[in-house]
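Title: Comparing notes on inverse folding

I've been comparing how different people in this forum approach sequence design from structure. To keep things fair, I'm posting one structure and asking everyone to reply with a full sequence. Here's the target:
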């Protein structure tokens, strides 16, 4: 098929490259000139397994091109919108990029084609867009939310847990099913608003699971129970499952926080107070603050204490720091008067402009931890778990605290090395 993709960000670049790899012809529109230049040179603008090679392959096939505006008149089978939907200060999804793309499409469309909405938009948005932009136009509308995870994006594109297609016309829905002819996954065809709701409900459920296990971890600390055993015992129930039951510092990233807020806002705007989701969001914020308080207590105050923060990215294997717990924790520790050194294998440059200038950036884990009174693990990068903790202990100062914010480090081994170990919902050691 002949496809246009609007927005060459995380989702757009992966979608465009994978669609070309599946034999389609793709024109990808990107308004950011710096990104456009890099992409035309064959340089990926995202940190993602396999994307560099795939992008080069696609460009040399001659079936992928990057342009700054939609060709006019537009003659394609499908137009995919993959622009961002960030948070407004109210928590609502900012749909201005969506409206902009829809306007461009309305102005360029002369021939029948299908608009496939991949961006995450609140329930009811698709129906409104059709009314506002495409009522008497050759464009048909399909909601087709994307579920890929950063760090596993290409793998997730080809092996999704499901493909959700929301269309008012079955024939149009079937056309989009054919677009994914080479992907073996259950396909759910529904109306537009239900498809939009599936995406938000899935993310709302996942963040609720994260906040739930964090609440249970806090309860474990109060009741002198061990969260590892509790989570294992709970997760073995097939009705619950073991995923997303690791207690820690809570969720961050480019999707979960903004989608949770947007659904909360959208529900309220429709007259429904989604109290469970509100509590989930509040627990997630509290978890970061609680971590700083616990550390302060253990250190007997923060002023003048040397603290190493390990990990800035919101999860391992990405350089993405959007809404990462590291940012709030670094800010609160700095404000409390601690001397901070931070290190992350990939996210230092993205984090630098977002952190106070008093924070030092270390070139590796060993420089970050040298002379520290406490080490805080924020992102569970493999290189932190596999680090030489004996060497780290030798160069630290009393009271040799390690705060394992992801319950990822070998607790018994660290205690045996002489660390004072604190996890989340684990017994102090
Ligand atoms: N990143 C993820 O892991 C992920 C996963 C699933 C769904 N989503 C959803 O997909 C959407 C896109 O997310 P993303 O992370 O790829 O965003 P992003 O910010 O990385 O990319 C969006 C891109 O669109 C470009 N853009 C904006 N308006 C444009 C226009 N009018 N014409 C051309 N280009 C334009 C921007 O310059 C940017 O490069 C969001 O709604 C997000 O919630 C993201």
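Reply #1:
Here's my take.
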């Amino acid at each position: 098929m002949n496809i246009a993709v609007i927005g060459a960000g995380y989702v757009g670049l992966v979608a465009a490259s994978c669609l070309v790899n599946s034999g389609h012809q793709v024109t990808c529109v990107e308004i950011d000139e710096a990104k456009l230049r890099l992409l035309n040179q064959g340089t990926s603008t995202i940190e993602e397994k396999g994307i560099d090679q795939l992008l080069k392959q696609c460009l040399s096939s001659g079936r992928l091109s990057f342009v700054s505006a939609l060709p006019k008149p537009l003659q394609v089978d499908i137009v995919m919108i993959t622009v961002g939907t960030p948070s407004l200060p109210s928590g609502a999804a900012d749909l201005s990029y969506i409206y902009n793309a829809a306007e461009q499409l309305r102005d360029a469309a002369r021939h029948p084609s299908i608009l496939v909405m991949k961006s995450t938009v609140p329930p009811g948005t698709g129906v409104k867009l059709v009314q506002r932009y495409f009522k008497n136009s050759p464009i048909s509308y399909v909601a087709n939310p994307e579920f890929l995870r950063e760090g596993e994006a290409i793998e997730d594109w080809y092996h999704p847990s499901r493909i959700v297609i929301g269309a008012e016309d079955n024939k149009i829905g079937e056309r989009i099913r054919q677009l994914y002819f080479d992907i073996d996954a259950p396909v759910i065809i529904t109306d537009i608003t239900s498809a939009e709701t599936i995406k938000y409900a899935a993310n709302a459920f996942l963040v609720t699971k994260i906040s739930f296990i964090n609440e249970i971890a806090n309860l474990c600390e109060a009741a002198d129970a061990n969260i590892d055993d509790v989570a294992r015992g709970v997760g073995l129930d097939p009705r619950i499952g073991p995923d997303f039951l690791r207690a820690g510092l809570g969720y961050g990233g480019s999707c979960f926080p903004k989608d949770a807020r947007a659904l909360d806002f959208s529900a309220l705007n429709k007259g429904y107070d989604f109290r469970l989701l509100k509590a989930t969001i509040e627990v997630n914020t509290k978890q970061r603050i609680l971590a700083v308080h616990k550390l302060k207590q253990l250190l007997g105050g923060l002023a003048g204490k040397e603290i190493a923060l390990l990990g800035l990215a919101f999860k391992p294997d990405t350089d993405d720091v959007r809404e990462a717990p590291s940012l709030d924790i670094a800010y609160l520790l700095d404000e409390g008067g601690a001397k901070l050194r931070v290190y992350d294998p990939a996210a230092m440059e993205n984090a630098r402009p977002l952190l106070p200038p008093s924070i030092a950036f270390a070139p590796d884990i060993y420089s970050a931890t040298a002379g520290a009174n406490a080490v805080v693990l924020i992102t569970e990068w493999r290189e932190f778990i596999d680090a030489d903790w004996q060497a780290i202990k030798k160069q630290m100062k009393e009271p040799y605290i390690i705060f394992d914010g992801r319950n990822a480090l070998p607790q018994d081994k660290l205690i045996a090395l002489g660390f004072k170990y604190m996890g989340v919902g684990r017994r102090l050691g």
